[in-house]
Every structure is written in C-alpha cells, then in structure tokens.
C-alpha cells in the first residue's frame, strides 16, 4: 500500500504535540494521574464580548472572500499598526483557518531552502518536508536565549549559497518561553542577503515584560507577520489566524490566495465576524489578568525547578519552559520523557522534537494544566498572587512540579 503514498508524506509522523496529548488522555482513562505539561493551549476562556459576537453572527452562512472579510482585514491592519508599529493596509492581510494552514501553504508555494533555529516549533520542519524544501538547522543555546546570533545566521547563509531562503523566527518562543533580544541584528543579516522572514508572533500578546517588539519593524519589506486568535484569546479551537504580507512580496501573496481558494475556500463566516470584536475592542484588562497568572505560574515553576542539576531559562512569555536535566542519563530525550511520564505522570515533550540533538536531556514543559476560568474569577483585581493562589487554582502545577523535582533528585 505504500506505493500510493508520496515519499515525503510516508516519512511523516503525527504531530508530537497532538501525540502527547492523546497518550496522556489514554493513560488518564486507564486510571493514572497525569499532569498535562506536554500540550500547550490557553487554559483561559474567550472574552465574553467576543463569544457574544460569535452568537450574534451565527446566522452568517455565505462564503466570504478568499482573502478574508474586508472589515476584519481592515481592523487587523489597524490593530497591527497600533500595537506593532507596522504600516499595513487591508490588502496586506490574508485570513486563514489558523496560521498552521497558512504556513503549510507557504511551504508548498516557496521554492528554496528553509532556515530553522533549533529549537523550533514541531510543525515547521515537517511542513517543509511536505513542500519539498530543504531544511537547514541553526543550533542555538541558552547562552543566546535560544535564538541564533547574527554571526551564526550569516555563516549558515554563506555555507548554503542559495538564492532563495526563508527564515522562521518565533518570539516569544515555543518551546523555550524566551524572547529574541537581537532582532535588529538578525534583520540586518536577512536584509543583506534578501532572506524572507516568517515572523511567527502567535505569542506576541503574551509577552510578560512591556511592549512587544516585532522583527518586521527592522525589515518590513521582507517580513511576513503571522499570528491569530488561538493563544492570547483562548480561541485555539476557533481556528482563525492571519498573515500580514508586505507589498514587496505581492507575488507570494497572490499565490497564497490561489492556494487558499483551492484548499479551504474561506474561513468560517461567523468566526470572522466575531474576530472583528477581538481586534477592534480593547481587551487589555483581560490580557493583563491572563499575563499576571501566566507570569506568576511560570516563575513558580522556574524557581522550583532550577537547581545545580536542572538548567532552565527565565520565562519571558507564552506557555513554556525548556528545562535541561544535567543528571539524566538516557539514550535520548525521548526515552527520558517516557521515563518521566511512567514514573511521575508528568507529560513533557522531548527536545529532539524541536530540532535539537536527541542526546541533550532537554524537554518542553507547558505550565497551562489548570482551569483558567476559575483562576481568573478567583484572582480578579489588583491582588498580588502568591503560592496559596496557585495551590488553590492550579494544584496540578504544584503537584506536577514537585513530582518532576523528586524524579530529578532521585537520579
């Protein structure tokens, strides 16, 4: 039967993040206590006004334009210009059923080589494989906050000698939870060699410290901004994301629109109308409350795990931490994560799933295993959070971290 499957597709495995979620659910159903630190999605409810907008537009049943609802694209462009200091208009915006789909179509369109910092989100590399684009990894470390240096990038570009390059930058980063501090240096190298940048900014509104900075500010003509509702708004299941594509990449945008028309046609009409509410109205009160909880939870995990045997970078945004277990001695990070899951019930993703050497005992930890609605309700206002709040509202975080710490100390 393999004769009917294309070679590049036969090489693929199920998405690592979805696989760990299914395995965790299977073990949970068998009666084992599982701490779901492997799958990263927002635990918070969608803001009420956005849910109401969806209800009020449930009767919208016609196909919308393939590029997306005009009013939504106009609203998103204004939102990016205000929050990201960009200069987009509605024609620069393409709406998709999540950014994951738009990235897959990008790999199908793009003809060239792909540059991925290691670690990178688990779907970048498989999608490049589907698109028959060669991937070149740039190995990073905690010393550079898990992002490539300008020298690393330039050396890699010179070594590849390709006229067509696509670089992915994801900040705040999945899996490390860190923010890129050298965006301008990376942008200068990319501009010098005419490298296209896909800036995955899906966690941009969950940046813990101050105003978010986009690499598109330093290299606007060559940067595609990618983001959506799933992380900041808690609407992962709604499947709405978008690309903001500069005028200089109009040929790419036109090709993307064609593939959109030949694949998903257009995004769900009620969700597009509801998204206008998400991007037009100020949701800073909701966001500030969400970030307060995420930041406190992240720092609790960070402070309780870091030690002389666990290296871990300080969390700066998103949902993740990326601990390295120095005293772990396994054949691979995958074997280590299996041991952790079987002995403690803590589900983690191995660092090898993110492009790192499997011999490095690194794992991604998502600190979102709690009921975000209850946590928000119980900590409204200016109250400063403490450990008691975490014990009450996120008991799985407290217990799971303790189990993980005990496992590490027992090695």
Descriptive account of the structure:
The radius of gyration is 21 Å and the shape is globular. Strands 2-8-7-6-5-3-4 form a 7-stranded mixed sheet, with helices on both faces. It has a 3-stranded antiparallel sheet with strand order 10-14-13. The protein has 15 helices and 14 strands. The protein has 2 domains: 2-45 and 284-410, Aspartate Aminotransferase, domain 1; 48-280, Type I PLP-dependent aspartate aminotransferase-like (Major domain) (Aspartate Aminotransferase, domain 2). It is 41% helix and 13% strand. The protein has 411 residues and is α/β, with parallel strands linked by helices. The mean pLDDT is 94. The chain has helices spanning 7-10, 16-29, 48-56, 70-83, 99-109, 124-130, 150-160, 183-192, 250-262, 269-280, 284-305, 333-344, 372-378, 387-393, 395-410; strands at 35-36, 93-96, 113-118, 134-139, 165-170, 196-200, 223-228, 241-244, 310-311, 320-321, 324-325, 346-347, 349-350, 363-366.
């Amino acid at each position: 039967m393999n004769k009917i499957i294309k070679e590049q597709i036969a090489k693929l495995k199920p998405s690592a993040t979805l696989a760990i979620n299914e395995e965790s659910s299977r073990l949970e159903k068998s009666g084992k206590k599982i701490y779901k630190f492997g799958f990263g999605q927002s635990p918070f409810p969608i803001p009420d006004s956005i849910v109401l907008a969806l209800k009020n537009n449930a009767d919208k049943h016609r196909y919308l334009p393939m590029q997306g609802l005009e009013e939504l694209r106009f609203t998103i462009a204004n939102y990016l210009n205000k929050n990201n200091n960009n200069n987009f208009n509605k024609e620069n915006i393409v709406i998709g059923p999540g950014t994951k789909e738009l990235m897959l179509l990008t790999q199908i369109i793009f003809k060239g080589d792909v540059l991925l910092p290691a670690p990178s989100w688990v779907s970048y590399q498989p999608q490049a494989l589907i698109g028959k684009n060669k991937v070149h990894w740039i190995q990073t470390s905690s010393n550079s906050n898990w992002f490539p240096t300008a020298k690393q990038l330039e050396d890699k570009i010179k070594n590849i000698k390709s006229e067509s390059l696509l670089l992915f930058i994801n900040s705040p980063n999945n899996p490390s939870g860190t923010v890129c501090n050298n965006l301008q240096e990376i942008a200068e190298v990319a501009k010098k060699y005419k490298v296209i940048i896909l800036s995955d900014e899906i966690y941009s509104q969950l940046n813990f410290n101050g105003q978010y900075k986009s690499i598109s500010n330093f290299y606007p003509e060559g940067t595609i901004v990618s983001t959506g509702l799933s992380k900041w708004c808690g609407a992962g299941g709604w499947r709405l994301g978008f690309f903001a594509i500069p005028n200089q990449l109009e040929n790419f945008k036109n090709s993307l629109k064609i593939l959109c028309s030949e694949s998903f046609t257009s995004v769900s009409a009620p969700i597009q109308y509801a998204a206008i509410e998400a991007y037009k109205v100020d949701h800073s009160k909701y966001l500030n409350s969400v970030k307060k909880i995420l930041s406190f939870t992240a720092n609790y995990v960070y402070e309780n795990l870091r030690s002389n045997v666990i290296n871990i970078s300080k969390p700066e945004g998103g949902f993740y931490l990326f601990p390295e277990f120095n005293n772990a001695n396994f054949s691979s990070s995958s074997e280590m994560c299996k041991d952790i899951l079987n002995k403690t019930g803590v589900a983690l993703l191995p660092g090898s799933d993110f492009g790192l050497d499997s011999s490095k005992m690194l794992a991604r930890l998502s600190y979102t295993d709690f009921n975000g609605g209850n946590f928000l309700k119980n900590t409204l206002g200016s109250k400063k959070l403490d450990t008691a709040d975490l014990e009450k509202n996120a008991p799985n975080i407290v217990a799971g971290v303790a189990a993980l710490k005990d496992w590490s100390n027992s090695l």
